[in-house]
Design brief:
heterotrimer; A mainly alpha (293); B mainly alpha (374); C alpha/beta (428); A: 293 residues; mainly alpha; ABC transporter involved in vitamin B12 uptake, BtuC; two-stranded antiparallel sheet; 12 helices; globular; B: 374 residues; Branched-chain amino acid ABC transporter permease (chain A); amino-acid transport (chain A); ABC_transp_permease (chain A); BCAA_transport_permease (chain A)
Chain lengths: 293, 374, 428
């Protein structure tokens, strides 16, 4: 039983990291209808930036400066590259974000080298024990932060003018334009917000015992099953989808280790994702208006 | 929910063009064609470099797959990131029939097409009920599922160690050894022999694709691509059309995969990655969406680009020649960076691809010629 | 009839559209004409030469991963090889010829490896370093066909039986077994004093092989029992399952057969769960950069390595440090540079012998490799390459790691009966 709880907690903690990454994807999708394949590398870049700044200043400041840098970068990318893709086909936009993702990855390797570095998390390796379950502080911090972020985003979207404007743009661009909403600013806002979430996700993704390394961008790809399962335009769905993926991975690495060559837990999120797409493409919490023939 | 705002590309560029210009185009077309065919036949005798011959062969093989990608994405407008999976299916089919069962190339190569096409037919009905982005991520999932299958189905794939691929044998000679006369003289080197074989397959697939594009089925693809709801109203069975596009595209991918591993001689499950599929999308988009020549051009461009950067990099002052694990602009990193950059630049500045980019000066010249002859 | 001319016009138009492809293809190919391969001949100084060797140059190729998942150790390995070749060239080269190294990036992808191999194969006489087991597998048949002498830097027994491919250090399994035997001796294991050990390995055929070698050796030592053998998948980034399984098994010694990408997670999360056994990794499980995340957790961490460390006080390392200072002064030190240096030393030894035999053809180099003694200047004990199909050495050494992640030797070079038994049982 203790083992089940232990695995469950770790699964939730890891799942929350995926959820934070997924939130960034969802915000960009909601705000500008782009599925940004480069988001994983922005998460990685955020972690690298925090780590680089940590050498000169306390973690809190490093985090804040990194957020500023990443938001500026994301808004620039959106304005320079993606703005020109408005109205182009899905294939074009997907390929463009893939191209940007390749560039960002190589830029990371050129700036910081091909090796691994230290951790960029806010807390170290400390733990607190509750009964027979060990709770790492990094896991607690991840969960706590995710809840706060989710609450903040919910408030933002429901109660603030910018949030409402963003939702209006997401649901019907032309109507939003007619209302006088500056749609270009909404695009920039959604990317900026996603960049902020990317840095948050990045520091937890690179928390002990994980480190900042070129592989971070690929790990972030696991957020894709999370979004699909949760629903591509649902904030709650992103978190729930992330939790499901995290739990599958961690619980599966123990309970499924005897089946399928010991690697079934690695592919299971994708199987579930494919099944969801076939049966219920809008996911658990997504809105039904989504593409189906 | 997402509607395409750009108008459908006009594929027949003789529409609305005066007859005189069309006749001039036909004449110049035949000249270009003759030159192109002769050039492709002559290349293996002119080119001495192993490096570029190898690149060329990989490009010819990739062009077959790129044509398949063009069918599904350029003609039928469905974005698929699963090309690598169907290539792998073709590869493993050919390996099983060619190596394990000892059958010759004219059995395993078509079989690769058939099995991969069937696999496409199995996946397609589920996949094509969803549109756009969802199809992209669904096919992305297929890659990860595929990798898992190849790595665990060890009797077929050889596991992580990989397995041998079938050889192409003409008159009992393995083309990888070159082609020799009965007197023991080398008529063709391995590069030359494989170039011609790959070229032959590519030409067959090219003609098939061209005929497909001009056929009723091809027009149905394009109707579905542009306005699938309208196409449905016009009486085109949309789902079935998409499935057929998937099947054809997967079959071509299977041929490409079988050729690829045969040329490699030995292959592992780890090589069927997402980047393989991304490469093919890049080939058709950069080469020219919706055109046969664009797919071929894109294939050559994508395969040649890393080597072009390698050739250029000693002349670029900011490229560091020494390997370093701590960062710095080295040739391998720069070439990958430029790959991404070129994709983005082409999409921004010439979304119709390199083909359109090349046509501009040609059309300008042609306009001058026909304008001057009036 | 109208239809026929219509479709012919279409075909012509299609081919015409492919003209730009022609333009690109010809432009590329014509501007990139390279030299053709030369056959065997005798040069002015009576040395027989073949492909890759001219009167002034001996051409070599390294096929490694400069931009993919193995980039960090692979790049360091490349640097180690390059500085050794620079040093040999500064001293006059071999047979009066300068060693030229062609660096080919395989990206750890079999297709790219094949492409790069084919591009360079006709131009070189030897491959001093090839990294990546899957890359090696992709070109093994070509290597055999081309008779191209190759040193594999992936210390996997899969490479041992390959034609024309040799490994000059013990394979990973020997490192693992020797590590287990040392731990058992240190703990005083016997039938009355049993020792519980565990082994962590990847969930694939290589992992099964590593785990089996450890289990084999355990059976040979009275009192030693393998109580857990958890596996992992390369995509895992949480190791709670493995750490818990290890902890619950009661193992006091854990043999790590994973790559350096998993070590931080395994050791770190085990520590968080309150589990701190004696960790013994093979040389591929440790990297200096791991000292950062695992700060304070490496007091009981040992590396069983078949080659030496940067701070050894032997001539070989002194030579290497001198070369590093001269040719790669800005590189951060990494033990994989030592591995690369070894490949350079072995290559130089082979080529020197071939020069003595006055045969610098591929066959001559292969012949020179037979039964050749290679002196590594103390970085590891002298090895004899034998026929290239067997394990050349069973000697390894235990190391601890210091605060910077560098290896500090704690024992002398030693071999074990259990490793030899394993080698014999597996036909090496």
């Amino acid at each position: 039983m203790a083992l089940f709880l232990q695995l469950g907690f770790q699964g939730i903690a890891l799942g929350m990291v995926y959820g934070l990454i997924a939130l960034g994807f969802v915000i960009m999708y909601k705000g500008s209808h782009t599925f940004n394949f480069a988001h994983g590398e922005i998460v990685a870049l955020g972690a690298y930036t925090v780590l680089a700044l940590m050498a000169f200043m306390p973690w809190g400041l490093a985090f804040l400066f990194a957020v500023v840098i990443m938001v500026v970068l994301a808004v620039l990318i959106e304005a320079v590259f993606l703005r020109r893709m408005v109205g182009k086909s899905v294939t074009t936009v997907v390929l463009a974000t893939l191209g940007i993702s390749i560039m960002l990855h190589q830029a990371i390797l050129m700036i910081w080298g091909v090796g691994t570095h230290g951790s960029a998390g806010p807390v170290g390796s400390g733990t607190v024990t509750v009964g027979s379950v060990v709770l790492p502080w990094s896991g607690i911090a991840t969960i706590g932060t995710s809840v706060v972020v989710l609450a903040g985003l919910a408030y933002f979207f429901q109660k603030t003018p910018y949030g409402l404007a963003l939702r209006a743009t997401a649901s019907h661009q032309e109507a939003a334009l007619a209302q006088g909403i500056d749609v270009r600013r909404m695009f920039a806002l959604s990317w900026g917000l996603a960049a902020f979430l990317a840095v948050v996700a990045g520091v937890f993704l690179a928390s002990f015992p994980r480190v900042v390394s070129p592989a971070l961008g690929i790990v972030a790809l696991l957020a894709i099953p999370a979004i699909v399962i949760g629903g591509m335009d649902s904030l709650v769905g992103a978190i729930v989808g992330g939790l499901i993926v995290g739990l599958i991975q961690v619980m599966g690495s123990y309970y499924l280790s005897d089946i399928g060559g010991g690697r079934l837990h690695e592919v299971l999120p994708y199987i579930v994702m494919f099944a969801v797409l076939v049966v219920r493409p809008y996911g658990l919490f997504g809105s039904k208006s989504i593409e189906r023939v | 929910m997402t509607t395409t705002l750009e108008p459908a590309p006009i594929d027949d560029d003789t529409a609305g063009v005066p007859a005189e210009v069309v006749r001039t185009k036909k004449r110049s077309t035949r000249v270009w064609v003759a030159v192109w065919v002769v050039a492709m036949l002559v290349v293996p005798w002119v080119v001495q470099s192993d490096l570029w011959m190898g690149v060329g062969i990989f490009a010819l093989i990739a062009a077959v797959g790129a044509l398949g990608m063009q069918v599904i994405t350029g003609f039928a407008g469905q974005i698929s990131m699963g090309h690598a999976v169907f290539m792998a299916i073709g590869a493993y089919t050919s390996a099983w029939l060619g190596v394990d069962e000892g059958l010759p190339v004219w059995v395993w190569l078509p079989a690769a097409a058939v099995v991969a096409g069937l696999a496409g037919g199995v996946v397609a009905p589920a996949a094509v009920r969803i549109r756009g982005l969802y199809l992209a991520v669904a096919t992305l999932a297929l890659i990860f599922i595929g990798t898992y299958v190849w790595e665990t189905w060890t009797s077929l794939s050889g596991g992580v160690n990989g397995r041998t691929a079938p050889a192409v044998e003409i008159n009992g000679q393995d083309l990888l050894d070159g082609y020799w006369s009965s007197g023991g003289e080398e008529i063709l080197t391995s590069f030359q022999a494989w170039w011609y074989f790959a070229l032959a397959v590519l030409l067959i697939v090219t003609v098939l694709t061209w005929n497909l594009k001009r056929s009723r089925l091809g027009r149905a693809f394009m109707a579905v691509r542009d306005r699938d709801i309208a196409a449905g109203v016009a009486g085109i069975p949309v789902t079935r059309t998409k499935v057929v596009a998937f099947v054809i595209s997967s079959a071509f991918a299977g041929v490409s995969g079988a050729l690829l591993v045969s040329y490699m001689g030995y292959f592992t499950p780890s090589q069927w990655t997402m980047m393989v599929s991304v490469d093919f999308i890049a080939m058709v988009v950069i080469g020219g969406m919706g055109t046969v020549a664009g797919a071929i051009l894109g294939a050559f461009f994508i395969k040649a680009m890393p080597e072009m950067v390698n050739v250029l990099s000693p002349y670029l002052p900011f490229v560091s020649k020494d390997a370093s694990a701590d960062g710095g602009v080295t040739a391998p990193l720069l070439s990958q960076f430029l790959y991404g950059l070129v994709i983005v630049l082409v999409l921004i500045f010439e979304p119709k691809g390199l083909l359109a980019l090349f046509k501009r000066p040609i059309d300008w010249i042609r306009a001058r010629i026909s304008g001057g002859s009036k | 009839m109208w239809v026929k001319s219509q479709s012919r016009r279409d075909v012509l138009k299609m081919l015409r559209k492919a003209a730009p492809a022609l333009a690109i293809a010809t432009m590329l190919t014509l501007t990139a004409c390279g030299g053709s391969a030369s056959g065997d001949s005798a040069s002015a100084d009576g040395v027989k030469t073949g492909k890759g060797v001219s009167d002034s140059e001996i051409n070599l190729a390294i096929l490694t991963d400069y931009s993919g998942p193995l980039a960090q150790p692979a790049t360091s390995g490349s640097i180690g090889l390059e500085i050794k070749l620079d040093q040999v060239n500064a001293a006059g080269g071999i047979c009066g010829r300068q060693l030229v190294l062609h660096k080919m990036d395989t990206k750890y992808d079999p297709q790219v490896t094949t492409q790069q191999y084919r591009a360079i194969a006709n131009k070189v006489v030897m491959i001093p370093q090839l990294i990546g087991t899957s890359s090696l597998m992709a070109v093994k048949d070509s290597i055999a066909k081309d008779d191209l002498p190759t040193f594999s830097a992936s210390l996997n027994t899969a490479a041992l039986k390959l034609e024309d491919v040799a490994i000059y250090t013990p394979p990973f399994e020997v490192e693992l077994i020797n590590g287990l035997v040392w731990a058992a001796q240190k703990a005083g294991a016997s039938a009355t004093n049993p020792l519980k050990v565990a082994v962590v390995a990847p969930a694939d055929e290589y992992g099964t092989g590593y785990a089996d070698s450890v289990k084999f050796a355990a059976e040979q030592i009275p009192g030693v029992e393998v109580v857990a053998s958890p596996t992992y998948s390369p995509a895992d980034n949480d190791f709670t399952a493995q750490a818990t399984e290890l902890k619950n098994s009661g193992a006091t010694v854990v043999i790590l057969a994973n790559t350096m990408a998993q070590t931080a997670g395994l050791v770190g999360q085990s520590a968080q769960l309150g589990y701190s056994p004696q960790w013994i990794g093979y040389s591929g499980a440790w990297n200096a950069a791991l000292a950062k995340p695992l700060a304070g957790l490496t007091d009981n961490f040992y590396v069983s390595a078949s080659y030496g460390a940067l701070n050894d006080d032997v001539q070989g390392i002194k030579d290497m440090n001198a070369a590093l200072a001269q040719y790669a002064p800005n590189e951060k030190p990494s033990n994989f540079q030592v591995a690369g240096w070894l490949s350079g030393t072995a290559t130089a030894a082979v080529l020197e012998k071939a020069c003595e035999n006055k045969d610098l053809t591929r066959e001559g180099v292969l012949a020179a490799m037979q039964d050749l003694d290679i002196d590594f200047g103390g970085i590891l004990p002298t090895v004899n390459l034998g026929t290239g199909d067997s394990i050349v050495s069973y000697q390894s050494r235990m190391n601890t790691v210091n605060a910077d992640g560098l290896l500090i030797p704690t024992t002398d070079w030693a071999e074990t009966d259990q490793a030899r038994a394993w080698g014999e049982a597996n036909g090496f």
